[in-house]
Design brief:
249 residues, alpha/beta, TIM Barrel, 8-stranded parallel β-barrel, 13 helices, 8 strands, globular
Length: 249
């Protein structure tokens, strides 16, 4: 599966590391099955973003198992996806600095779900600490983060979660992200993508609407739209769990 995926996309977001930290052998196989220029972004474990009590141990373990793709120079970042309940405060801002330190030399990108983070002092803090900002497309609820094209490092980052308003709150991940974008909805983002790419050296686009294969379909459609507009090459892809990207030998 991953062999086929790597022929179409240059990068992938590893989602499974949010739920559990697997054996190092998993990443040995991921390295073996991908070309030298392939790029991985790994989600940090939920202990770091949600429980926030054992961040040091969790990040240490994650660094260790990722060594095969780190040594191959294929690990290009960590994504810390914080929950809606993680709201802006000085204490939480300081915690972001701690996570950045624990990320060591690997670039860190943060995603907020709560609109309280939408303020200039947050963006400046991220710039000062070289933490990347994740722009998102998600349902248009007043308390969620709106569409943006914010850059806080030389790398741009965008994630598309779908707009499933009916199942967003209180549903499982599969139901929440069960949404396929129309071409018109994808086109709404072309201006923001152009703007972000002009501010950065490279921009990642990831589709997290992974239910029923929507992510791959929409990623292909977005690549087509970008090609039509003569946009610069952008590494884009779909989010995958290890069960989706590993073939058995």
């Amino acid at each position: 599966m991953l062999d086929f995926y790597a022929k179409e996309f240059k990068t992938v977001e590893i989602n499974s590391t949010y739920y559990r930290i697997p054996n190092q052998a998993v990443f040995y196989h991921l390295n073996r099955k991908t070309p030298p220029d392939f790029e991985f972004i790994s989600k940090v474990h939920q202990e770091v973003t949600h429980n926030r009590e054992n961040a040091e141990e969790s990040m240490k373990a994650l660094h260790a198992v990722l060594e095969p793709i780190k040594s191959a120079q294929k690990l290009h970042g960590f994504l810390a996806q914080f929950p809606w309940g993680f709201k802006y405060s000085v204490q939480n801002l300081d915690y972001l600095g701690k996570v950045k330190t624990l990320s060591e030399e690997t670039p860190l990108f943060v995603e907020f779900r709560n609109r309280t983070w939408i303020r200039n002092e947050v963006y400046q803090f991220l710039r000062d600490h070289e933490i990347g900002y994740c722009n998102v497309d998600e349902p248009n609820f007043p308390s969620l983060v709106p569409p943006q094209d914010i850059a806080t490092t030389e790398i741009g980052y965008m994630r598309f979660h779908g707009r499933n308003t009916q199942n967003w709150w209180g549903s499982s991940g599969g139901d929440r992200y069960d949404y396929r974008y129309s071409m018109e909805e994808l086109s709404e983002w072309l201006g923001r993508i152009r703007s972000l790419s002009q501010k950065t050296r490279k921009t990642y686009l990831f589709f997290n609407n992974c239910h029923m294969g929507h992510a791959v379909v929409n990623a292909r459609q977005m690549m087509e739209l970008l090609f039509r507009r003569g946009m610069p090459a952008i590494d884009g892809g779909a989010e995958k769990g290890e069960d989706e990207i590993l073939d058995s030998d």
